[in-house]
Design goal:
Mean pLDDT: 93
Strand content: 25-35%
Distance between the termini: 76 Å
Number of strands: 39
Length: 364
């Protein structure tokens, strides 16, 4: 197990240490369960109360932290405490070590395929004709790479990833188990009572430093490319429709579905289970709330939520009103009943027989 002094760790993070710099640190743990030889972190102010009771060697906190802390627990103040936590995780745990090396003889590799220096291919992999793979790729069992795919350096494909023909993958792309890239988009022309398939003649292009979770599905375009911009990160079970283009450094949470021919700007965020209708624009920096249904274009920088999606402040007001609907309905029924009684007393017309209150009176 790696070990370092608290003072050395603080220096590595570029943070300011308050506490015993000679304390040994051997790992990282959640704030509630960290032990005397582990560090923890505070990035969300909701967890501030736990700092007062933690047993950790030190807590990585924002630079302006002024909350409680046990006397025996150190504080490492950093401008970005969450990124500092990431750096500690890298220092103590590193990244996944792949369990194989070289090219397994059980892999089926077409004679015309080209593999770059240092690329590792596990057994039961299929690499078709005309494929070109850069240096230091890691390809796990069950991966299928279709004809004429182009793959850059330092890519990792986990078990059972499928790349259909003509897919283009740039450098340092990681694709997790079961994801399919470049399959046909959902394109049909309904004619004479039948849904006739439209050939999907485009491709998928994934730019540098993209990571995709498990069981994602990226459609090839009907014509031209479907594009996933550099630095974009997917969770699991994300579906991207044909011809859609995502900008740089977007975050796509689990079960998001974006239909075809959508243009998404850079630095956009999509909450879990959000859905986006086809042929719309989403501007740079827009944030789409979880389970939102986006049916019209979203300006740059706007936060939206709900279905159909609305600017977030309006969405919050609508949700607050929805919680009051049962009470409001009861009040409307009561007022309508009183109004009908008053009309009868004054001889002004009859009761409102079409109103739910009248129906309730009839039922009574």
């Amino acid at each position: 197990m790696a070990e370092m002094k608290l003072s050395d760790l603080a220096a590595k993070l570029g943070g300011t240490l308050s506490g015993d710099g000679d304390k040994p640190v051997r790992g990282v743990a959640p704030i509630e369960s960290a032990r005397e030889d582990e560090v923890t972190f505070l990035a969300n102010r909701r967890y501030e109360k736990h700092v007062a009771t933690t047993r950790a060697a030190a807590v990585i906190v924002p630079a302006d932290y002024a909350g409680p802390c046990p006397e025996e627990v150190g504080l490492i103040r950093c401008e970005d405490s969450y990124f500092a936590f990431r750096e500690v995780m890298v220092a103590f745990h590193g990244f996944r070590r792949h369990p194989f090396e070289g090219v397994d003889p059980a892999a089926a590799i077409h004679p015309t395929a080209e593999l770059g220096e240092g690329t590792c291919v596990a057994g039961m992999v299929t690499i078709c004709r005309g494929v070109r793979i850069g240096a230091n790729a890691v390809i796990y069992p069950g991966v299928f790479i279709g004809p004429d795919c182009r793959i850059g350096d330092d890519c990792t494909f986990y078990p059972n990833v499928t790349l259909y023909d003509g897919t283009i993958i740039h450098d340092r792309v990681a694709i997790h188990a079961g994801t399919s890239i470049g399959h046909d988009g959902f394109g049909y022309a309904t004619h004479g009572g039948r849904h006739e398939k439209i050939p999907q003649a485009g491709w998928v292009e994934i730019e540098d430093d993209v990571e995709m979770g498990a069981c994602c599905a990226i459609d090839r375009a009907t014509m031209g490319p479907t594009v996933i911009g550099a630095g974009t990160k997917f969770s699991n079970l994300v579906a991207i429709g044909h011809g859609t283009k995502l900008g740089r450094h977007c975050l796509i949470v689990a079960q998001v579905g974006i239909a075809g021919s959508v243009n998404v700007g850079s630095y956009c965020v999509f909450g879990g289970q959000a859905g986006v209708a086809p042929h719309i624009q989403i501007g740079d920096g827009a944030r789409i709330g979880g389970q939102a249904g986006v049916v019209s274009s979203v300006p740059a920088g706007q936060d939206v939520g709900g279905f159909p999606s609305m600017p977030l402040p309006l969405t919050l007001r609508v949700w607050a009103t929805l919680r009051q609907l049962p009470t409001m309905r009861s009040e409307v029924l009561r007022l309508t009943k009183e109004l009908n009684v008053l009309k009868q007393r004054l001889g002004i017309g009859g009761a409102d027989r079409d109103h739910p209150a009248a129906e309730k009176e009839d039922e009574g």
